[in-house]
Design goal:
This protein is mainly alpha-helical. It has one domain (29-253). Helix content is 79%, strand content 2%. Strands 1-2 form a two-stranded antiparallel ribbon. α6 packs antiparallel against α7. It is elongated.
Length: 258
């Protein structure tokens, strides 16, 4: 048990700051919860994959699909899930930068100390607002559009990749039914003694069609849940950043406007 505890100690130190933010001085946010939820989701997927490997389900899938489309769908899902995890970590950093700006700005005292928070879209957005206010330029529409694009732009490509999984499943369905049609067209006559072999040949194409379609649909649903949650976190950060820019930060940047 002591050896296991020593191996888990670096992992606990890695997320020590996140535990403090969830229970202590820094308020918990959707971005924090999303990253922790993604970790739990990834752990469940890894455990389920291990159980499927022990039951030889992966071997059955590989043997049942000679086209390799099923493995392509699984590979796309794995890489997309890892990307969502990295994006969840980045959104958590953006939320930390937003909190750092809220703590640095003191409207009641009329002071502003630019925080040295994590570099990212939120940090550049507020820095751009401060720089424009020094030139007495208070139109923030362009910077707002840039912030929205940086928070939501990557997810648009992710949704396209999510649709690719269904398209691969449909491609496997077309290939499977094509194999089935070719097998039927090559049947010259029906021999009862060869019925078992003919049925095996016919069901091979049907199995490819059904298997690839089912795997594509399941992967699409699992990845879609992650992408919806990621978009909601980005919406929350964007809304809070705009609210802070129009309330707390504007009291300092517009104080010399009159």
């Amino acid at each position: 048990m002591n050896g296991v505890a020593r191996r888990l100690l670096p992992l606990s130190r890695l997320f020590q700051s996140r535990v403090i933010s969830l229970t202590g001085s820094t308020p918990a946010s959707d971005a924090d919860r999303f990253f922790l939820q993604w970790l739990c989701f990834a752990g469940v997927l890894i455990f389920a994959s291990f159980l499927l490997w022990r039951a030889n389900v992966w071997g059955i899938l590989v043997a049942a699909d000679p086209t390799g489309i099923t493995l392509m769908i699984v590979a796309v899902f794995i890489f997309s899930t890892i990307w969502v995890g990295t994006r969840a970590w980045m959104l958590m950093q953006e939320r930390q930068a937003l909190y750092a700006w809220k703590l640095a700005v003191r409207p009641q005292f009329g002071t502003l100390q630019t925080p040295a928070g994590p570099a990212g879209a939120v940090q550049e957005y507020f820095s751009g607002l401060i720089e424009k206010s020094r030139r007495h330029h208070y139109d923030n529409a362009q910077l707002t559009e840039v912030l929205a694009e940086r928070l939501h732009g990557p997810s648009e490509s992710a949704w396209w990749v999510n649709g690719i999984q269904i398209k691969l499943g449909l491609l496997g369905k077309v290939i499977g039914f094509s194999i089935l049609a070719l097998d039927i067209s090559q049947m010259q006559n029906f021999d009862a003694s060869q019925s078992a072999g003919m049925l095996k040949s016919l069901t091979g194409g049907l199995g490819i069609a059904l298997l690839t379609t089912a795997v594509g649909l399941v992967a699409n649903m699992l990845l879609g849940v992650q992408l919806v949650r990621m978009d909601r976190c980005g919406d929350g950060i964007l809304a809070d950043a705009l609210e802070f820019a129009e309330t707390g930060l504007s009291q300092l940047t517009h104080q010399d406007k009159a």
